[in-house]
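ARCHIVE CARD
Drawer: 12
Card no.: 0347
Subject: one protein chain, sequence and derived structure
Cross-reference: see card 0346
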Amino acid sequence: MVAPATDTLSIPIIDLDPARSGSSEDTARVAKDVYQAFKHVGFAYIKNHGVPQELIDEAFEWACLRSIAIIEVKLIANEYNRAKGSSHSPQSAKDKAPHPPEGWYHRGYSGIGREKVVQMVFDKEGIAEKRKTPDVKESFELGNETDERMPNIWVPEEVLPGFRAFFTKFFEVCYGVEQLMLKTIAIGMGLQEDFFLNYHQNKTNQCRLLHYPPVEEELLRLGKAERIAAHSDFGTMTILFQDPVGGLEVEDIHEKGKFNPAPFIPGTAVVNIGDLLMRWSNDELKSTLHRVRAPPLVDDSGLSGRMTRPRYSIPYFVSPDRDRVIDCLPGCFGPGRPKKYEPITSREYISMRMNATY
């Protein structure tokens, strides 16, 4: 069920199918593999995860061709806009769903340079220093359609017909993967299989469409621009779909500060542990640092200098219900093993991290 690690890849590949359709013994074996991956690496590739490949392909089609990168292609082709003489430009269309000024209200479109991921920096001076090096990316954030605290901010239907309906469906399918993963993690840790499910009832999750446009290699080399610096994710876990371009790197489990590629593997998603699950487990499970660097470079006579290739990814961030208190799990503390973290609600922790990012 687990593919062995290679010399350059320490992240195991886990087949989830036996946990979905097999016996309790099969589920227990998968749960053990998941637990070992998250204990020792913090990351795993999962296959047979439950999101149909055609749905993933369509999601990337929206992200690449309709939503973020070149939205004008669909606008020009759309009969409604043609008949009305639409004057929407790609940027003006995206700007119709702007991310609010508050960092915690993480919905809608964020343009290049709007967001700057920082790792555990919360003071204004420290954040300002980090923001001197911009993240060259743009994103669109969406969540549960029934979320009253953080309603979705959609591009209007007449501007991008079908976008809302598709990603509402995509969100729900990803939630099914979340449920299976939460079940296997609980079993692997010796808990009741519904332990984590009981903390994730309200679907307070976030689906993100990410586009990294081409950027001059020299800016990255000189430290004048970044994709995303080394960071840990905030919530319970992240389910990531990435394109074949590459660029994701994960900190080496044996050598702090060394990052290894986590390349695209067809038919898989990448899953990693977030800070809240690490806190929950008293560091038994790892919220591993990762980053996005420049993918392999290409020369293009139509561009000035050496440019990186555009990259797309779709992470689905899983978080506990906002008002649930995250405290050390049973069996993860005791004599000689004190609690490392104070109790905190999901809302408090994620808002703190998001406000620093924006």
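Annotation on reverse: Residues 2-357 form a domain with the Jelly Rolls fold (CATH 2.60.120.330). Confidence is low (pLDDT under 50) at residues 4-8, 66-89, 118-131, 300-304.
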